Amino acid sequence: MVLLENDAFLTELTRLFQKCRTSGSVVITLKKYDGRTKPVPRKGHPETFEPVDNKCLIRASEGKKKISTVVSTKEVIKFQMAYSNLLRAHMDGLKKKDKKSKSKKTKATQ
């Protein structure tokens, strides 16, 4: 997993989308990130860890290639605008639904 800066993540994500345009898929996940690198212990003495700043961890993967970035609250608006424009530009390869299912329903009701 490669942790990138926000701008580098967006450019690499663009490359992943272009690579998967004909075949393949890109999986994107988002989750809250508190800055911990070690897991929380289940039993014993739970640490009271208060994050200073809320952050978001964004991961993208295509096959064996994995990239990630951490977005802080100060950069969320800027990143969100660039990310949404990127998704709009590369979501044109989606398949359309079949119209056959609609005609089957109308025949069944007649």
UniProtKB/TrEMBL annotation:
The keyword Phosphoprotein applies. InterPro entries: Signal_recog_particle_SRP14, Signal_recog_particle_SRP9/14. Its main location: cytoplasm. This is Signal recognition particle 14 kDa protein. It comes from Astyanax mexicanus. It is found in: Cytoplasm. It comes from the Eukaryota. One of its GO terms (molecular function) is endoplasmic reticulum signal peptide binding.
